[in-house]
Design goal:
heterodimer; A: ABC transporter involved in vitamin B12 uptake, BtuC; B: mainly alpha; two-stranded antiparallel sheet; 3% strand; globular; disordered C terminus
């Protein structure tokens, strides 16, 4: 029984970590390449879910999925053009404040258009069952499916970054932005592309997490804080660090919440703090993250 | 020249005369006007005014830290919460002396500030923001788990502090006057500190740590002292806020509140102590006024912040 519980929680943790990974790719690339701290990235997660499930309710899940991705990407392109471009060369304080303001605006716009009631996010019928995984353990098919999609998306981003010309420019930009610019690369277009890609991945995470969580205004914020912890632990701009740190945080957070809550209030407090202890320790021991030299 | 909100121009390195006549008169006039208003206004407005001044205490400390010492903190809500909880605990345990409360809050925040500051001040920029955020999140979860103190919901402070024996600050007006006086003392202290030799250390450490170190001053110590001072200010403001609303809640430690505090610092500017007061007044009044017409006042705040960051207004230089 306890082994089954452990395996189940491990799977939950990995699945949560993969969702966190999708959200964090954007944050880490945007920070690594453009040097921009984007607090508003959680809003793109939220907007993806809102666009997707409101369109999906009327015209079916496939269209909804596409609408979620396209809608978030369009908003991201507009935001990048109107706001982010002015923030790239500013101090981190300005960036945090500007994107904080943007986040407040996004949250309130969602409340104005959709109301404060949580959104009804239905999971597809054919994925609502569960499959046998190990011994007597049956695991929800939906969670397995979204984990698979996340792995595929992560693989896609990895190939894009390591095998294509655009990916090469992005990596070069993360290492030395000024040099890339000096070589005649259209840095504006590159930045927009990276921002939209990050937004689409965040929206993908929002669309897939939707049925598992309560979709309401501000839903992306706790996840965004965890994504920032991912960047600190993994190191900015490192895809490998981002993945390892996401999975680590996902598993540690899930296991801590599953096992420590048994110890009452104190246990719950420790469970909530574990991720931040991890982050603080990494900050003190390896200030630039585990995977950045 | 960079267009960042904090530049040497808005808060120059200056150890000058501690108080100019103009600054003292301005501060005195504002305090006197506030106290007179406390006596004349209706109960609802008194509460708003008192809240503005209590919030001002918190923002004064953060202004010192961010704009003068150059330390970023996205976790000062935690110190506000510590102040509120210490004040609440004293009120629950039957110790109602105002002086005991102020002393206990200050001590608790000095301890917390030293501990947190020693941990987070070695990092810089984004990493500093994240470290302070991590600490604040821990405090938030810690307070939430205190079942005896209401857990998620927080707890009520039924009895307000008294100055001496039976002379209690039970009415909103009396407590409001106390908040105004405390805020005035804090503002004078902050001004004095900014214009002292230590203030010059803080500002030159912000601009160039190596230059400060080459003068034989340890930049870390300077930042730590600034951090502790701002933590104490935050705690005192938090205690006042808790007594005013008769309520202490873990939400004070939430990072969104810390973000709002940072917004207030930037809206208030670096040069004067009265700038943050205007920012606090704008926030509280905006919240109350807009709440009568719409519940989307955060939209207005978000837009205000965006506009302020995207089109920075150059602050008035320190006279």
């Amino acid at each position: 029984m306890s082994l089954i519980l452990l395996v189940e929680q491990l799977l939950n943790g990995l699945q949560f970590g993969l969702m966190l990974f999708l959200l964090s790719i954007g944050v880490t690339l945007i920070f690594g390449v453009m040097g921009l701290v984007n607090i508003a990235h959680g809003s793109l997660f939220m907007l993806g879910a809102y666009f997707g499930f409101s369109v999906g309710e009327r015209w079916g899940p496939v269209l909804g999925f596409a609408a979620g991705l396209a809608g978030a990407a369009a908003v991201a392109a507009a935001v990048e053009f109107l706001v982010m471009r002015r923030l790239y060369r500013r101090s981190h304080l300005d960036q945090v404040l500007g994107t904080f303001g943007l986040m407040l605006v996004c949250n309130e716009l969602v409340v104005i258009f959709w109301g404060r009631e949580p959104l009804l996010a239905a999971m597809p019928e054919w994925l609502s069952g569960s499959v046998p995984v190990f011994g007597e353990l049956r695991y929800p098919a939906y969670r397995l499916a979204i984990s698979a999609v996340a792995v595929l998306a992560g693989l896609g981003v990895y190939l894009l970054l390591s095998r294509t010309r655009v990916g090469m420019l992005v990596r070069a930009g993360a290492d030395n932005r000024t040099m890339v610019e000096a070589l005649g690369v259209n840095i504006d277009a590159l930045f927009t592309a990276v921002f939209v890609l990050g937004a689409a991945l965040a929206a993908l995470a929002g669309l897939m997490m939707g049925p598992l969580i309560t979709v309401e205004a501000g839903v992306g914020e706790p996840l965004l804080i965890l994504a920032l912890a991912v960047i600190i632990i993994g190191g900015a701009g490192s895809l490998k660090g981002c993945m390892v740190a996401s999975l680590l945080i996902g598993v540690v957070d899930t296991l801590a919440r599953a096992y420590l809550s048994a110890f009452g209030g104190g246990g719950r407090a420790v469970a909530g703090m574990v991720v931040y202890w991890l982050m603080l320790t990494v900050l003190l021991v390896r200030p630039r993250g585990l995977f950045v030299r | 020249m960079s267009s960042d909100l904090i530049t040497r121009r808005t808060a120059p390195v200056a150890a000058g005369r501690p108080f100019t006549w103009r600054a003292s008169l301005g501060l005195g006039a504002v305090l006197a006007a506030a106290i007179v208003a406390m006596l004349w206004l209706d109960p609802y407005s008194i509460k708003l005014l008192a809240k503005i001044f209590a919030l001002w205490i918190v923002v004064l400390g953060l202004q010192l830290l961010i704009t003068h010492a150059g330390v970023l903190s996205l976790g000062h809500g935690a110190f506000v919460a510590v102040g509120a909880y210490v004040a609440g605990l004293l009120s629950l345990s039957g110790a109602h002396s105002l002086w005991l409360m102020l002393g206990a809050v200050a001590l608790a925040c000095i301890a917390a500030g030293l501990l947190v500051g020693a941990a987070v001040l070695r990092s810089q920029g984004l990493y500093q923001l994240m470290a302070t955020l991590a600490v604040a999140q821990m405090a938030y979860y810690g307070l939430q788990s205190l079942r005896a103190l209401g857990g998620d919901d927080g707890f009520a402070l039924t009895i307000r502090p008294s100055i001496l024996g039976d002379w209690s600050l039970e009415s909103d007006g009396a407590l409001g006057c106390a908040a105004v006086v405390l805020a005035g003392v804090c503002a004078a202290l902050a001004t004095r500190l900014c214009r002292s030799e230590f203030g010059a250390y803080m500002q030159s450490g912000r601009d160039d740590e190596r230059r400060l170190a080459s003068l034989g001053v340890n930049p870390f110590t300077v930042k730590l002292v600034a951090f502790v001072v701002s933590a104490v200010f935050a705690g005192l403001g938090g205690a006042m806020l808790a007594h005013l609303s008769r309520f202490a809640s873990p939400q004070l430690g939430h990072w969104l509140f810390s973000g709002e505090l940072m917004v207030l610092v930037v809206l208030g500017g670096a040069a004067t102590r009265l700038g943050p007061l205007l920012a606090c007044a704008a926030l509280v009044l905006l919240q109350e006024l807009l709440a009568q017409y719409t519940d989307h006042w955060l939209l207005a705040l978000g837009l205000l912040v965006l506009v302020r960051v995207l089109w920075p207004v150059r602050g008035r230089a320190q006279p």
